[in-house]
Specification:
single chain; 451 residues; Urease, subunit C, domain 1; TIM Barrel; 2 domains; 6-stranded parallel beta sheet; 4-stranded mixed beta sheet; 12 helices; 17 strands; binds zinc ion
């Protein structure tokens, strides 16, 4: 005989007029048990849960964001960013899953032993779920299968100097060798696409002048490298992904490759969609990243590429460093570390830029949640749908705030967005049905195939 119990079957019910489901924002009740979305009913169904959250008229419920491009840097450069600080920032920004890049941490994640080291460093201190990319570097072709079997979501490579000595770059022919290996197990290669020789021949960057820095990382270097990625993917049949697309010149070539059936996906980042070269003050190295933030007309073409589906996803490329490496004393773009940190702010940055262009919130969330989840093969993330993890964000799209670096959880709160007014405030983040508590890490480490 069953014991009579007052305990409802559902741990949590969230209900409101605007819940983002497959058909768009709808009046719904979402029922959650054991960390998973169990049922979605029309608003008014009266689901009973141990805890019930009622959205106000200003609030919407969206799936937690999935950010597949985060440099955590632990172990080895934990003073740049660590798992605790990065995942706190993620949770505060409505990001419930990150996938960590294989470089800037030491050792880089280029063999299984390094992956285990990284997993032990992350264990018990993450506030959101964390997966890992492996690295493809000269000499580690023999490690790729083992890394894949150990649960990395794919492999990152560079086609030019990575910025750190311990993570080498591939020549296009080496890329093709690795793509052939990956094609055997349908692995994914994600590529930093700037051409080494083109950059070598560009004027070298120096001084406080942003235009000089921009000239040192020309669109042509990106275009050439994207062309290599496209043709090597075409030749091998492997899946390839272009990271942080900045040059809009590459869009027609990407469009044509996709039309031809090349297995290619592309991401861009909040800074390429919200900022413009013309607005970067002299010496403001917090704007330095590679590839660089380009001109306003280029930015508008990237928006077109997103809207027509040429660009698949928007992820942060959160790539922090300490303040001294940003060379604020000299403002020298040639010396400063290249990387923009925006993990905590990405949703509001992109939403602010989207709404001024008449782009609906549902599309922004698709680019920042469903698409990156699909890229990494995270089948239980990226949607409010039955059977998915209950990773949910209560968001107020019409609320506004001014970016105060002191309120960022990033370990080094250096940001080009300081004092900017942004639309959209993350009110509450739920990870697998539990409201994230920034004092109690409850994230999990994700393994490809098991997550
Ligand atoms: Zn990156």
């Amino acid at each position: 005989m069953n014991q009579p119990t007052d305990r409802p079957d559902l741990d949590l019910v969230v209900r409101g007029e605007r819940v983002l489901v497959a058909s768009g924002f709808q009046p719904r009740e979402v029922g959650i048990a054991d960390g998973m979305i169990r049922t979605i009913e029309p608003l008014g169904a009266g689901l009973v849960g141990e805890r019930v959250v009622e959205l106000t008229g200003d609030q919407v419920l969206i799936p937690g964001l999935v950010d597949t491009h985060v440099h955590v840097n632990e172990p080895g450069r934990t003073h740049w960013e660590g798992f605790a600080s990065a995942t706190r920032a993620a949770a505060a920004g409505g990001v419930t899953t990150i996938v960590d890049m294989p470089l800037n941490s030491v050792p880089p994640t280029t063999d299984v032993q390094a992956l285990q080291l990284k997993r032990s460093a992350a264990q018990d201190q993450v506030f959101v779920d964390v997966g890992f990319w492996g690295g493809a570097v000269p000499g580690n072709a023999g490690e790729l299968r083992a890394l894949w079997d150990a649960g990395v979501f794919g492999f990152k490579c560079f086609l030019l100097h990575s910025g750190v000595e311990e993570f080498g770059f591939l020549e296009p022919d080496d890329l093709e060798v690795d793509l052939r290996i990956l094609a055997e197990f349908d692995g994914l290669m994600i590529v930093h696409a700037e051409d080494s020789r083109a950059i070598d021949h560009a004027p070298s960057p120096h001084g406080e002048d942003y235009a000089a820095f921009l000239a040192s990382r020309p669109r042509g270097a990106e275009n050439l490298a994207v062309a290599e990625v496209v043709e090597r993917a075409r030749r091998t049949g492997a899946r390839a992904h272009v990271l942080h697309l900045s040059s809009s010149d590459a869009l027609p070539m990407i469009r044509s490759a996709k039309r031809d059936g090349v297995r290619l996906t592309v991401e861009t980042c909040p800074h390429y969609l919200a900022l413009a070269a013309e607005e970067v003050p002299d010496g403001a190295t917090q704007f330095k990243c590679c590839p660089p933030i380009r001109e306003a007309d280029n930015r508008e073409l990237l928006w077109e590429g997103l809207l027509d589906g040429t660009i698949d996803a928007v992820v942060s490329d959160h790539s922090p460093s300490t303040a001294d490496l940003k060379a604020f004393d000299t403002g020298d773009f040639g010396i400063a570390w290249g990387g923009v940190s925006s993990l905590q702010l990405g949703l509001s940055i992109v939403w602010t830029a989207a709404r001024t262009r008449g782009v609906p919130l549902a599309r922004v969330v698709e680019w920042m949640s469903a698409r990156p989840a699909a890229l990494a093969g995270l089948t239980r993330k990226g949607a409010i749908a039955v059977g998915h993890d209950a990773d949910l964000v209560v968001f107020e799209p019409d609320a506004a705030f001014v970016v105060d670096p002191a309120r960022l959880h990033h370990k080094n709160p250096i940001t080009p967005y300081a004092d900017r007014a942004l639309a959209g405030v993350v009110m509450t983040t739920f990870l697998r049905g539990h409201e994230v508590d920034l004092t109690r890490p409850a994230g999990r480490l994700l393994t490809r195939g098991l997550s």
